[in-house]
Write a structure and sequence with these properties.
It contains 33 helices and 17 strands. The chain is α/β, with parallel strands linked by helices and 713 residues long. It binds adenosine-5'-diphosphate and zinc ion.
């Protein structure tokens, strides 16, 4: 009988010593306890939920070796590197190793020098005898366990061999882990692995740190512009843009690069070597942005992906959830955006129809579309797919942030429905809008639609708004699209009630496109404002330090310290070793490796800040005494431009400085248009060039400060 008290306190100690964490996340402790008592378990947790600790902590307490089956070779190396960085003895066996390396690792395992051995499923099959016969295996962890089931979305035949393990070693405890929660797959995993008296641990799939936003009906050009602005607003952050096709990945990436952004693309059409390079550059913070098909991300454990954008509607909710789940694994706030246009549906329907599993895939697409079009809390809908029900609205999705207002839209709906009926349900939504707006397009005239009674009856509503109303009507079940008949609009039974039985329709009030755009900007510039906070400057400083450390050690930066830990350090500015050790994510080994250096780095940063703030202060004192800029420059022995920069900085910090002593409204206008045209808002040179040298550098600097303070850039 194992002493439970003892397990619990020991597991807490190990959590702090090796991982630097103070507390378990929900379920982790229970799972560890269950595993330590020799039981089987099935763990369902979302990506980033913290599955790994559930077998890593037991592996440190159990006598022999814990074998971890993991399907992705690239991930294996990453995980082992991460464990080693925390001082945990781990190794892997897969096809990338030479024979000597393998022999060496087996030897280490036999000598009890390795706690965790990661193995690919193929290798388990091939070296079954060697691993289970010669090693003292005390626990088997099966990661991505859904791969064993042909019901799951990622079936791998190699996984089926794992069945034999329980047959041969009925006493060996197994822990199966997955982020896929559907019930069929769940019970299939239990059967196939032969789990016995297992307990299922189902964690919440809610990821509150991910913001959810669906951007409906944004035209192609605006979409690119929004994305460019967004990336520019967070130059150091990593993000992924999921595109529908290989070609669109390449096109988008080169478009973004042409705007001076640093991106690359990734899809299955690249060679294995190319893919590895792209992935490597991303993981190591060398390329911050990747335009990719859904092939990207499976093998990536990067914890500091700060945002994910879907350039088009995804095929199904499972995929969408998994893809956005790649953001914010470290638990810090991260953004997700999904762009959705009706054209996406038409393309995706074609894919689904040609997929061989038409009915199933069309149904999944319909659910995806319903999510994108809904006007109730997005997280509520999303979680309901996983059988989870949120009691309250989440407050962190676009619907919660801008709740829709309804109005009586019966007349609008009647106009649209009558146009649909009068075209004998043969017109596409574009054509219906053209008719309502009284367009003189050839198609309209040729069909004689200009003679319809409804022709031109909707001139007072803009084309974009009509499209949105039609979409709402589809969502409310008044209209359907006949995808097999050139996407013609069809009126449903319910529509007849609206037309002939006086049934009321309430529609969601549309917000002008301009305002919608503005709102979008406001949401993400709020965070930008945070960036000028003092802790953020230290964070950026430490981030650079981290890159250097990582280079020297040949590991990805987030394995030095992840973003959450680095941020906590930046916020609390530890001064002593004791302060540093109390920070979540600073374990013993990392403390020994980086502790002193990071403390030094922090004190260096403080020094430089002190110096900087005193030099600004001197300039400000002279300004206040009424000296002009030339005089200040002379007195301080610096050049005039530096003094202007100081004034600009001081003004932005809220010091009472009047920039209009040196610039006028026209300067501000010129600089604003230069910023809008070049996208540059920090460096003066590109703006100076754009303005053909007609506005002096110092005027540009001050105008930028003014525009930024006013929130105009
Ligand atoms: P999963 O395998 O479920 O996708 P991971 O095991 O990789 O997730 O964990 C995701 C992140 O959360 C990792 O950076 C991990 O170190 C961190 N983490 C896990 N458990 C805890 C905890 N108890 N406290 C703080 N961070 C944790
Ligand atoms: Zn919400």
């Amino acid at each position: 009988m194992v002493d439970i008290e003892c397990i619990v306190s020991e597991s807490h100690r190990l959590l702090k010593e090796y991982f630097g964490y103070d507390a378990f996340r929900p379920l982790q402790e229970e799972i560890v306890r269950h595993v330590m008592q020799g039981n089987d378990s099935l763990v369902l947790m979302p990506t980033g939920g913290g599955k790994s600790l559930c077998f890593q902590i037991p592996s440190l307490m159990l006598p022999g070796v814990t074998v971890v089956v993991s399907p992705l070779i690239s991930l294996m190396k990453d995980q082992v590197d991460g464990l080693n960085a925390n001082g945990i003895a781990a190794a892997f066996l897969n096809s990338t190793l030479s024979e000597e390396e393998e022999v060496y690792i087996m030897q280490q395992c036999r000598m009890g020098k390795i706690s965790l051995l990661y193995v690919s499923p193929e290798r388990i099959t091939r070296s079954f005898e060697k691993i289970f016969g010669m090693l003292n295996v005390s626990l088997l962890a099966v990661d991505e366990a859904h791969c064993i089931s042909s019901w799951g979305h990622d079936f791998r035949p190699e996984y089926q061999q794992l069945k034999w393990i329980k047959h041969t070693f009925p006493k060996l405890p197994i822990i199966a882990l997955t982020a896929t929660a559907d019930k069929t797959t769940r019970s299939d995993i239990v059967t196939q692995l032969g789990l016995h008296n297992e307990r299922t641990f189902l964690a919440s799939f809610n990821r509150p740190n991910l913001s959810l936003e669906v951007r409906v009906g944004v035209g192609a050009k605006d979409k690119d512009r929004e994305i460019i602005d967004y990336i520019r607003s967070r130059p150091n952050d990593s993000g992924i843009i999921y595109c529908m096709s290989r070609k669109s990945c390449e096109k988008l990436s080169s478009k973004l690069n042409a705007k001076g952004l640093q991106t690359n693309y990734y899809h299955a059409g690249l060679s294995a070597k190319q893919r590895e390079n792209v992935q490597d550059d991303f993981i190591n913070d060398r390329t911050p942005v990747i335009c990719a098909t859904v092939a990207f991300g499976m093998g990536i454990d990067k914890s500091n992906v700060r945002w994910v954008i879907h350039y088009n509607l995804p095929k199904n909710v499972e995929g969408y959830y998994q893809e956005i789940g790649r953001a914010g694994r470290d638990g810090l706030a991260s953004d997700t955006f999904l762009y959705f246009n009706l054209g996406d549906i038409i393309t995706l329907r074609k894919f689904a129809e040609e997929s061989g599993q038409m009915a199933l895939n069309l149904e999944k697409l319909t659910q995806m579309q319903a999510f994108a079009e809904s006007d109730i809390c997005r997280r509520k809908i999303l979680l309901s797919y996983f059988g989870e029900y949120l009691e309250k609205d989440c407050g962190n999705c676009d619907v919660c942030k801008n709740p829709p207002k309804k109005f009586d839209g019966t007349i609008i709906a009647q106009k649209a429905l009558s146009a649909v009926m009068r075209t004998k349900q043969s017109a596409s939504s574009q054509l219906v809008v053209d008719i309502l707006r009284g367009s003189e397009k050839r198609e309209v005239l040729e069909m004689g639609y200009h003679r319809l009674k409804t022709y031109g009856k909707g001139r007072d509503v803009s084309e974009d708004d009509w499209k949105q109303y039609l979409r709402q009507m589809m969502h409310f079940g008044l209209l359907e699209v006949a995808y097999d008949r050139n996407n013609a609009l069809i009126a449903t039974e319910l529509a007849r009630k609206v037309l002939f039985e006086d049934q009321k329709v309430s529609l969601v009030k549309l917000v002008a496109a301009e305002i919608r755009k503005q709102r979008f900007k406001v949401t993400y510039t709020k965070e930008q404002a945070q960036k000028s906070q003092p802790w953020n400057q230290l964070f950026e400083h430490l981030r650079k330090w981290r890159v250097e450390m990582a280079r020297a050690k040949g590991i990805p930066p987030y394995l030095v310290f992840n973003d959450a830990t680095l941020r906590e350090i930046a916020v609390s500015r530890p001064e002593s070793t004791l302060d540093l050790l109390s920070i979540s994510g600073v374990g013993k080994v990392k403390f020994d490796a980086y502790g002193e250096e990071i403390l030094e780095e922090i004190s260096r940063f403080k020094q430089s800040q002190k110096k900087a703030s005193s030099t600004y202060q001197l300039t400000f004192d002279l300004y206040q005494k009424g000296y002009d800029v030339n005089m200040i420059a002379q007195m301080r022995g610096m050049n005039v431009m530096t003094v202007y920069s100081h004034l600009a900085f001081l003004f932005q910090q809220g010091y009472p400085i009047d920039p209009f002593r040196y610039i006028d409204k026209k300067d501000v206008q010129d600089v604003l248009s230069a910023v809008q045209n070049t996208g540059e808002k920090l460096q003066t040179k590109p703006l100076y060039d754009f303005l053909r040298g007609e506005v002096d550098y110092y005027r540009i600097r001050l105008s930028l400060a003014y525009l930024s303070k006013e929130g105009k850039i």
